[in-house]
Write a structure and sequence with these properties.
Belongs to the amidase family. It is built from 8 helices and 8 strands; from the N terminus they run H-E-H-E-H-E-E-E-H-E-H-E-E-H-H-H. By secondary structure, it is of the alpha/beta class. The protein has one domain: Amidase signature (AS) domain (Amidase signature (AS) enzymes, Alpha-Beta Complex). It has a 6-stranded mixed beta sheet. It has a two-stranded antiparallel sheet with strand order 4-5. A hairpin with a 3-residue loop joins strand 4 and strand 5. The termini are far apart.
Length: 226
């Protein structure tokens, strides 16, 4: 309901992910409750979710309904998270605004005259507007950091190759020198840490053996700067 309301005001959601209720019922029956149990999670447009498109803001991707979840979405579900919406991006995603010819312009919920930033602008707008508490964005040159800054949120671009990018649509192929990364966006740092801890688990390392199997180290985070 909150997400619908925010979307009406700032146009940040591209699709609602079906089967959330079924997933919740399935989770309730499981003995093991994951670290993200029951948390609704918003997902940036180009991260594959089964039965949905990953447009990248481009018409050429519109006919391609994805047959399976990306690794990151599989791991979120494994940890009890419930991906519930996909969020808007600029065309090609190499941009610090958030508009495309398919879904239109996303506005900043704090000031409708301003941009929410990009390219994870739909995420920034939805979380800042109160429609989501945790989202997965992506960042090459600021695409998590800019919308987090513009919308007054916390965001993390992890180290390259830290989180699996299997099942993520990219308009640019072969860019090796600067690594794009998926990462969490939320209202506080603790939420980012919890999400990273949840993602860096055995399930992800098994699903994508190219990711170094290094779990999240809470001590390093809490040590802070000397």
């Amino acid at each position: 309901g909150e997400a619908l309301q925010v979307n009406r005001e700032v146009n940040c959601v591209t699709d609602f992910i079906h089967g959330c209720e079924d997933q919740l019922q399935k989770l309730k029956k499981q003995k093991e409750k994951g670290l993200l149990y029951g948390i609704p999670i918003s997902i940036k447009d180009h991260i594959n979710c089964k039965g949905h498109i990953s447009s990248g803001g481009m018409v050429k991707f519109l006919g391609q309904v994805k047959e399976e979840d990306s690794v990151v979405v599989q791991v979120l579900k494994h940890q009890g998270g419930i991906p519930f919406v996909k969020t808007n991006i600029p065309q090609t995603m190499i941009n610090y605004d958030c508009s495309n010819l398919i879904f239109g312009q996303t506005l900043n919920p704090l000031n409708h005259q301003k941009s929410p930033g990009g390219s994870s602008g739909g995420e920034g707008a939805l979380i800042a507007g109160g429609g989501s508490i945790l989202g997965i964005g992506s960042d090459v040159a600021g695409s998590i950091r800019l919308p987090s800054s513009f919308c007054g949120l916390c965001g993390l671009k992890p180290t390259g190759n830290r989180i699996s990018k299997q099942g993520v649509v990219s308009p640019l192929i072969g860019m090796q020198s600067v690594t794009g990364m998926l990462g969490p966006m939320a209202r506080d740092v603790d939420s980012l840490a919890l999400c990273m801890k949840a993602l860096l688990c055995r399930e992800m390392f098994q699903l994508d053996p190219t990711v170094p199997p290094i779990p999240f180290n809470d001590e390093v985070r809490l040590r802070g700067n000397p």
